TrEMBL record:
One of the protein's GO biological processes: siderophore transmembrane transport
Entry keyword annotation includes Methyltransferase: no
Signal peptide limits: none
Keywords: Receptor, Signal
MF terms in GO: siderophore uptake transmembrane transporter activity
Database matches in InterPro entries: CarboxyPept-like_regulatory, Plug_dom, Plug_dom_sf, TonB-dep_rcpt-like
Species, as recorded: Thermaurantimonas aggregans
Protein name: TonB-dependent receptor
Keyword flag Signal: yes
Cross-referenced Gene3D superfamilies: TonB-dependent receptor, plug domain
């Protein structure tokens, strides 16, 4: 931009500060004059060199605020300084600005952390907001995991303060998962990209979630309590404001949710977490920071009985299972990161960071069960309607596991950013070492009416005198296991990564063109594979009254294997597994329109991903079991839509919708064509909505809605065919009613609460309509299915239902 301006013989400089009505500086305000544009910094300041001309108009624009402008005669070689105040479009409530103006220029969606306060549902952290964005799906309200544009949980990048975060390895059910690493009370900034992200982010095929923890500005305390647990967060500063400390502890129990499941049991979930974020400014240019975390998630359950009714109107069935035994899951995570940020001048920023992550995971269970499958009387006129008509099958099973995993991941990285006159350069290097020890011992036996499954029979034929006629059978002796795995593995490896990127903007056809080009490399010594990964994004904002931005992203998003992808279903580890490859094309339109005299942002994106060397997998609940082979190619394509704005004056809401398909073709069986991947979901829609009583805005309502069509499934040990079965659609509505007792910056009519910074209390209704969503199936065979001589047997898929309607009470206090 500076070089283009200098083409004019005479120039002037405009500078100044932009604030809101309270005098606070506003960041990322667009300052436009004579075809040249800049944005305010975090302290609200800006500086722009423009042609020196009379009757020059300067425009100030920030999403959610009223536009402002001023007219000035600019003289050559002079600098003009202005103080500008922007007014909110709606002043009845503090606006929850869900998407900031910054995300219109960058390649990520920026979410205001205030949206977390009114989020309804069991998952109330950052992941609870992310799953309501377009292209993002989740079918389990007890898990914080999410899928993005057809990818699975392992294809998402998560960063906290620039450090990559890892999810547990052995979790198989959402109720075992415990607390997410991201502590919502400590979050200061949230950025998310569903694809086409920049080269500075790592090597995953689906998405990136970039979290920055906030730095305290003064002493403060936040406490939260509910029927599902609580948290306590303390802000502190000292040493003449050079030292800051942000500390938080959390406790959560899922007993409220588990009590609504079909299984009656003694549930003992105990999830605890402690985090600390410290910063110390040695000088104005050098700052040290430390992030530490300790988490222990214990899930114990002693099941007693399960009763599940399922089937159709024509055939109503009831499964009753009697249990004996216990499940014991214990996941311990330790994390620490030390970083140094150095700013030798205003243009250059350098960062060094080292981090260590350790997870120790124990998965013990020994469960014996006896089941009865009965058919119910479905005659509406019968006196025995709903009672058992006859027993269709009985049987027993035993599930046993002694699984242990210990993983350590160590990182050292350097990143740097240089803001030049014409653009911004970024580069970085990273070294990573992984040491994983895995003990996998698990087996299952099933007995159906005296038949041990799988049931084998050896046939005896008499060919000498009877002409090859069947005369007898020999029954097997001993116990045959339905599934049995017993392996040990130890893997150590190193990775070397780096990137370089450049971003800038220029004038084109009376509009503004923003572009970012970058390249990554990734080398893994375990399989000796080197990846070169280019990425490019361009955004164009035409001039004129219509506020539109067009986006195009192209690039490679390859994913070298981590340990989970390397281990197959039997526990064997493939150390020569190649990286999965994904090539993205993302085209989008971002526009701001005015409805009801308020701005609304509408974003539409089309994407196509060409996928190579895929590793196929099975998905059950949140458990992923990989083939550990590059045995498929495929593609993903879809259309995402979102509109957000003030549907109710003064507060932000949004609606998202997605059409999507993701397919794969098996290399060993290409004649089957393109089959749906386990995360294939044709349509998904979500709503985040807020409202309040006009006569008393302290009474507020938060509502979330999720709908998603069914995902594919197949019975266990079932060879894939062109025929695909699908789980029923996922449908869920959560609603919360809040009373604001003390609003920040405003006096409360209840005098006792004026000593607080803010306080509110509320009641949440989970699963408002009581819809029982299916997460997976328990498979039961009748006696005929166990007998190889009969073809009349059936295998029944008994739905594993998720939670029912529940009530939760929550209180939040800030000092």
């Amino acid at each position: 931009m500076g070089g283009i301006v200098r083409l004019f013989a005479q120039t002037a400089i405009i500078s100044g500060t932009v604030t809101n009505q309270e005098g606070r500086p506003l960041e990322l305000v667009e300052v436009y004059c004579r075809g040249f544009i800049t944005y305010t910094s975090a302290d609200g300041k800006y500086r722009l060199e423009v042609p020196a001309m009379k009757n020059s108009w300067i425009y100030f624009y920030l999403f959610g605020y009223r536009k402002d402008s001023l007219k000035v005669d600019l003289q050559s070689n002079k600098e003009y300084n202005f103080k500008t105040t922007l007014k909110l479009l709606a002043e009845d409530l503090d606006e929850v600005q869900v998407v900031e103006e910054k995300s219109r220029i960058t390649n990520t969606t920026v979410i205001d952390v205030k949206a977390l306060d009114m989020l309804a549902g069991p998952v109330t952290g950052v992941e609870g907001l992310i799953r309501l964005l377009p292209g993002v799906t989740s079918r389990n309200e007890m898990s914080s995991q999410y899928n993005v544009r057809g990818g699975n949980f392992d294809e998402n990048l998560v960063y906290v303060n620039g450090i990559e975060i890892y999810r547990p390895f052995l979790v198989r059910n959402g109720q075992q998962e415990g607390l997410s690493f991201i502590n919502p009370d400590m979050v200061g900034n949230i950025e998310f990209s569903a694809g086409g992200f920049d080269a500075r982010y790592g090597d995953r095929m689906a998405s990136v979630l970039d979290i920055t923890y906030r730095k305290p500005e003064k002493f403060g305390l936040r406490s939260e309590a509910s029927l599902m647990g609580g948290s306590l967060t303390i802000d502190a500063i000292g040493l003449k404001n050079r030292f800051t400390a942000l500390s938080s502890i959390r406790y959560r129990t899922n007993e409220l949710l588990l009590g609504s499941l079909d299984t009656d049991a003694d549930f003992r979930p105990r999830f605890t977490d402690a985090q600390v974020y410290l910063t110390y400014s040695l000088t104005d240019r050098l700052e040290l920071s430390f992030l530490g975390n300790y988490s222990r998630n214990i899930y114990k359950v002693i099941p007693s009985i399960r009763t599940t009714n399922f089937g159709t109107v024509q055939q109503s069935l009831r499964l009753t299972v009697f249990f004996d035994g216990m499940e014991n899951y214990d996941f311990i995570t330790r994390f620490s990161a030390l970083s140094a940020d150095y700013r030798p001048n205003k243009k250059l920023t350098m960062r060094w960071a080292v981090s260590a992550f350790q997870t120790t995971e124990q998965e013990y269970f020994d469960i014996v069960g006896a089941y009865r499958l009965a058919e119910l009387d479905n005659n509406l006129g019968s006196d025995q309607f709903g009672d058992i008509r006859f027993i269709r099958g009985v049987g027993g099973f035993q599930n046993y596991a002694r699984n242990l995993l210990d993983a350590i991941v160590v990182n050292a990285q350097y990143t740097s950013t240089y803001v030049g006159n014409r653009g911004t350069w970024g580069w970085g290097l990273r070294w990573q070492a992984e040491d994983i020890i895995d003990r996998y011992k698990e087996w299952e036996t099933i007995d159906s009416a005296g038949y041990n499954l799988p049931h084998f029979r050896r046939y005896i034929f008499r060919a000498d005198t009877l002409g090859n006629v069947f005369v007898d059978t020999v029954e097997p002796k001993g116990l045959f296991l339905y599934e049995s795995f017993d392996t040990r593995a130890s893997v150590f490896s190193q990775r070397f990564m780096g990137y370089g990127e450049y971003s800038s903007n220029l004038k084109l056809l009376n509009g503004d063109l923003y572009y970012t080009a970058g390249i990554r490399f990734n080398y893994w010594d375990l399989n000796d594979q080197l990846l070169i990964i280019p990425r490019f994004t361009v955004k164009y904002k035409p001039s004129g009254p219509k506020n539109r931005i067009f986006r195009l992203s192209l690039g490679a998003y390859h994913q070298p294997a981590f340990y989970r992808e390397m281990r197959d279903i039997t526990g064997n580890v493939n150390t020569r597994l190649r990286a999965q490859e994904s090539y993205h094309l993302v085209a989008g339109l971002d526009q701001v329109v005015t409805l009801w005299d308020r701005p609304f942002r509408i974003v539409t994106e089309y994407y196509f991903k060409f996928l190579r060397n895929l590793v196929t997998y099975e998905l059950e609940n949140v458990r992923l079991r990989y083939s550990a082979r590059n045995d498929a190619d495929g593609f993903a394509t879809g259309l995402d839509f979102r509109i957000n704005g003030q549907f109710v004056k003064g507060i932000e809401s949004w609606f998202s919708a997605s059409l999507m398909t993701v397919r794969e073709r098996l290399k060993d069986n290409p004649q089957l064509g393109y089959l749906p991947r386990p995360t294939d979901q044709l349509f998904n829609a979500s709503i985040y909505f807020q409202d309040y009583l006009p006569k008393d805005p302290t009474w507020r309502v938060g509502l979330t809605l999720s709908f998603g069509t069914g995902i594919p499934f197949n019975p266990p040990q079932f060879e894939r065919t062109a025929t695909t079965y699908r789980i029923p659609p996922y449908r869920r509505v959560d609603i919360a009613f809040y009373k604001v007792l003390k609003e920040e910056g405003k006096p409360s009519k209840y005098r006792a609460f004026n000593v607080l910074k803010s306080a509110w209390a509320g009641v949440e209704v989970f699963n408002l309509f009581g819809i029982r969503n299916t997460i997976s199936y328990l498979w039961i065979k009748d006696i005929n299915a166990a007998n190889p001589d009969l073809t009349t047997g059936r295998q029944f898929g008994v739905p594993n239902y998720l939670t029912n309607r529940l009530i939760n009470v929550k209180v939040v206090v800030r000092i």
